[in-house]
Structure formats: C-alpha cells, structure tokens
C-alpha cells in the first residue's frame, strides 16, 4: 500500500483523536486496524467524498466509522483545526507519536498485534449497555491497552 500525503495526515490525525491517551502499542494497534480496513476493500472504504476508495483517508473519514470524526464528537473540531494547521500540529508530542505509529505500521517496523482486526472499541464500552451490536457477546478479540480489537466483522 502506497499512501498519499492525505492518507498520512488523515491517518495520523485519526490515531491522535482515537488514541491520544494510549500507549504507543495502543496507537500502533489502531494504525494497523485502519490499514487492515483499507486492505479489506469492504464498504467502509468506499464512497467517501473527495477520496479514492479503499485508502487510509477514505476509511478514516467514512461517516460514523471512527468516532473522532463524528459531527457530535468534541475531537472533530480539534482534528479539523490540526488538519488546517499541520505544521503546528506536528510539534505536539501526541501528534508525532500518532504519526510514528502509522509510519511504523505501514513500513512493517511494528507487526500487527491485532490479529488482522478491522474493528475496535474501548474495554469499558464493550462491557457497557451502549456496546454496539457487532461487538455484543463477541468474545473473540485481542486486548491491547484499553481497547479490544476484533477481526472477522462484516
């Protein structure tokens, strides 16, 4: 997979928004999940306005797939500001850590510890009444930090 500049920027911002409080292995696991989605060539990578299908950017910006980009999520405003001011954003240690996680995953420096996961959620959400239908009762996951990673989700 040869990512574009937009893929790198959107991918790193997504990791920043989704895993800002995580350890580096947690960020890298989310990076692999994003990459696995792009490689899977499923519906979640198609039809994102302004981006080629099955790219990192298309997968990340597909509506309602990564909560940090949802209109009702407070992270969305932060990420859009960082996207517009990327030179300032890269000075933030958490943004650099997110970028490193994505590059290390893309380049194979950090192997995929998620088992090929295309979906994840927090451990707390998985245990809660708000758990999404696709994860309810699904105990086939890999736990990395505060997230659970699932493969084989349609």
UniProtKB/TrEMBL annotation:
Cell wall hydrolase SleB domain residues: 25-150
GO MF, one example: hydrolase activity
Alphabetic keyword roster: Hydrolase
Keyword Hydrolase: yes
Designated name of the protein: Hydrolase
Organism from which the protein derives: Pseudohongiella spirulinae
């Amino acid at each position: 997979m040869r990512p574009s500049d937009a893929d790198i920027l959107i991918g790193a911002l997504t990791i920043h928004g989704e895993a800002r409080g995580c350890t580096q292995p947690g960020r890298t696991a989310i990076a692999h999940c994003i990459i696995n989605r792009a490689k899977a060539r499923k519906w979640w990578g198609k039809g994102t306005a302004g981006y080629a299908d099955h790219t990192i950017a298309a997968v990340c910006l597909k509506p309602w797939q990564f909560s940090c980009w949802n209109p009702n999520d407070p992270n969305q405003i932060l990420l859009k500001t960082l996207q517009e001011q990327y030179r300032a954003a890269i000075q933030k240690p958490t943004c650099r850590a997110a970028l490193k996680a994505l590059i290390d995953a893309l380049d194979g420096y950090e192997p995929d510890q998620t088992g090929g996961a295309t979906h994840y959620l927090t451990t707390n959400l998985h245990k809660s009444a708000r758990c999404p239908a696709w994860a309810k009762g699904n105990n086939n996951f890999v736990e990395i930090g505060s997230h659970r990673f699932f493969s084989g989700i349609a």
